[in-house]
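Reposting from the mailing list since nobody answered there.

I have sequence plus structure tokens for a pair of proteins and want to know whether others read the tokens the same way I do. The first protein:
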Amino acid sequence: MNRKIKLILLVFLLTLSFSCTEKKSIEKVKSEPELVVTPKTDTLKFTSGIRAIFQDSKGNYWFGSLQEGVAVYDGKSFSYFTRNDGLSDDQIHSIQEDKKGIIWFETQTGVSSYDGTKVTNHTKTKNENSQNIFPIQSNDDKESKWMKSDTDLWFEAGNNPGVYRYDGQQLHYLAFPPQKNLDPKNNLFAVTDISKGKNNMIWFGTYTGVLGYNGRDFTIINNETLGLDRKIEPLHIRSIYEDSKDRLWIGNNGIGILLKEKESIINFSKKHHLIHPNSKRNGEKSPEGTLEHVFVIAEDHKGNIWFGDRDAGIWKFDGKQFQNYTQKDGLTNDFVLSIYVDYNKELWFGMADGKIYKFDGKSFEKQF
């Protein structure tokens, strides 16, 4: 009889132990951060364009606007940050995260960060409410000469002819060395886009050309390199992107897409008859079915290249064929400012009218 009682007690204890272990396992799974957007209970209040989209390591989505600061969405509601909260400017160009989990904002006039508690401005600003201004090292200093590492964050430097580099400890301003072959007046205009590539290369797009930096030397791509006449086809670079096949895509505001593949450089838009024959390249609106004013370029997990055009909506290139999405396909606007691939490999699109779309593989669903 005693043996039966002991056996029953042993079975009971084993069952209880397994139940507790299973409960702890379930609780552990539940505590992991979700990387999906839950049913929306709030609406984004931005009315200006969405210049930047970013998902942080916790799964929150950040949206940078053209005039109204930045918003963060936690899956249920939005929080907003503007110059009144310490941002250097309300026009947001890009959003990044460092290895410490700090969120960084590149604005029209400088660089700011958010540590989860407060916004810190790292550049000089006219905003009197920003009390946390950190000094920037210039490359006139010995500590701020041109160099790079894989964990660096890079930012545009407003109207200055250079960039900001954050090395994990300090923000440095690095002025580009003068390049006579890039601009006849020996001046480099401000950076318009930055793309990290392979082989330790980082690309900087400017109004007058592209500079590539590998940690040692600069590579220059200008009108002369491309065989373009400055008077007829002036470079006005708005976007650059190096894809998984080491191809460099250069988006212009007027002459379309330029494609650098190994030593070959072609006008991709012209080759595929996506430049209108009567295009004046003077800023006038381009007709539908063209790819002339390209403000953003991205690549999805399948290797498709996506282009956001100023006048002709969203373009997808699968390596052989093109597909064009416009207001006829349900978009509220044909001016695309940002494209972003999140942790779930889903594509997000920010439009000039403040709307945000997500592509499900077949159609576009308006998120906000």
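The second protein, same order (residues first, tokens after):
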Amino acid sequence: MRIRALSVFEGVVYHCHAVELSNPCRPTLEVDAVTRPGDLDAGPLLVTWAEYVRMVGAEEARRCGPGLRQKGRVVEHLGVTHLAFPTWTVIES
């Protein structure tokens, strides 16, 4: 699944839509937005869980949710559940 972010502020995606829906358990995020310093570099980008459910449907979200949670992709931010999209990952050498 590919999600396109149209607006991002301080790591939170405010407007987005699904570009492609195959494999909803492995969502990826594309950013097509004007951004400022601090919008992309403070940690993972966050799409609300409700927005993810809207895009994939409740049944698919229920099916994919446990795996996404196990991978640490479902997080709480300011009391709201979000799907996290890490912008980088540390690799041990």
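Reply #1 (J.P.):
I read it the same way you do. The helical segments are 49-56, 58-70.
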